[in-house]
Amino acid sequence: MLKVEWQIFGLFMMLKKKITAALMEWHNTQNNREMPWKGEKDPYKIWLSEVILQQTRVEQGRTYYENFTHKYPTIQHLAADKDENVFKLWEGLGYYNRCKNLLFTARFVTNELKGRFPDTYADIVALKGVGPYTAAAIASFAYNEPYAVVDGNVFRVLSRVFNIDTPTDSTEGKQLFTDLANEVLDKKQPGAFNQAIMDFGATICKPMAPACAVCPLQKLCEARQHGRVSMLPVKNKVLQKKTRWLTWFKLQAEGKTLVHKRSSRDIWENLHEFYLVEATEKTTWTRDLVTQWCWNQLDVKKAEVISISGVLSQQLTHQTIKAQFIEVQLPHIPPSLTEYDWLSTKEIDQLAFPRLINLWLDPKKRDSLLF
DNA sequence: AACGCGGGGCG
DNA sequence: CGCCCAGCGTT
What positions does the domain HhH-GPD occupy (predicted)? Predict the structure, then answer.
């Protein structure tokens, strides 16, 4: 290797050491972020908190963590409950596949591993719903294994401090930042370091309006020196948004309501809904059209249209939902719909529904979503 | 390698 | 309105 390359290499090694030290110093003297799972040593609770926090803000996840740990103090409690109850507790948190995998893993650990949570990174990352981030978090927090977490905070902090514009959502970027994070990791106290860099990213090196003026890494930060802080990190994905037109028919007969559990590979998997009709564009529902639709689609001659809502709008990350709700009273449960569940209001209260449906069900909140 | 998956908060 | 959040599983 050329002499000049050795010099650059040496400078890089020095920079890394300084950054590790500066982050730990900040953590030990100024980090006052408090969270219910901080300092937790029970791998079950660490795992639970990390799954809840995947792609989810700490403030949004906090109450869910408290509700779950209160209702399920151990992984055995969680494994033993009915699916519907667990989904009800997860209701509103989003990314419902997490809940499905949470239950699967709880039962796997309870039944196949005799209740012993795995205690090495390799075994932890093999669990369903646990990827590289979550495994590193559990391994470092619970067992002090030297694995660096790489989450949105870490991508941001490292891309700025080292002024790296490799896209964080590329395969190359993930590998590069993972390697870098493991080099910066304080091997003697991996758990504390991982906590430090994430808290630092969340409170100082924030996505918008980072607190560079009071940042203890200010002089070390390459992006700061080059005036590129606001340009980092770089992502190259442009997500396509599509609009969907959904009409839910709340069909009532014999004191019960038709309920359907969503199961296809689509949003709100495993949550419940009413009878859904999806169209490629806005449908102008009139009482006559609804009556005619009941006749044609449900083979129901006498249908009483109770109400037709306005168009409610909900913005998801990747979809815009335009929804209408139509309440229909039928004289009896039609033979064409006996395959569906017909439930009482009390039974429906036990089930998890998408946010949008719950908001419509609450008359006080309906108007806030009117398009 | 690319895509799909919720809901909320912020500028 | 667009961006981001203690990411992961599927194809």
Answer: 52-203
> What pLDDT, on the 0 to 100 scale, is given for residue A371?
60
Give the tens place of pLDDT for each residue, A35-91: 999 999 999 999 999 999 999 999 999 999 999 999 999 999 999 999 999 999 999
Distance A33 CA to B2 C1' (A): 36
For residue A119, the 8-state DSSP code is -
A212, A304, A296: which is closest to A250 by C-alpha?
A304
Of A231, A263, A286, which marks where a domain is finished? Answer: A231
A268 CB closer than 7 A to any strand B atom: yes
**Measured between alpha carbons, how far is A177 from A237 in angstroms, rounded to an integer?**
17
pLDDT digits (tens, 9 = 90+) for A113-169: 999 999 999 999 999 999 999 999 999 999 999 999 999 999 999 999 999 999 999
Give, in Å, how far the C1' of B8 lies from the CA of A61: 11
Give the phi and the psi of residue A275 in degrees, each rounded to 5: -65, 120
Note the pTM of the prediction, 2 decimals. 0.95
Between CA A194 and CA A121 the distance in angstroms is 15
Q: Rounded to an integer, what distance in angstroms lies between the CA atom of residue A186 and that of residue A17?
A: 9
Question: Is the CB atom of residue A267 positioned under 7 angstroms from any atom of strand B?
Answer: yes
Which residues is A342 bridged to in the sheet? A258
Residue A170 lies in a domain: yes
Rg of chain A (C-alpha set):
26
Tally of structural domains, chain A: 2
Q: List % helix, strand, coil for chain A (3-state, nearest 5).
A: 50, 15, 40
Residue A286 shares a structural domain with residue A322: yes
Same domain (yes/no): A226, A246: no
- Same-domain pairing of A189 and A306: no
Domain limits for position A117: 3-231
Give the list of residues 6+ apart from residue A10 with CB closer than 8 angstroms, or none. Answer: none
Q: Are residues A154 and A133 in the same domain?
A: yes
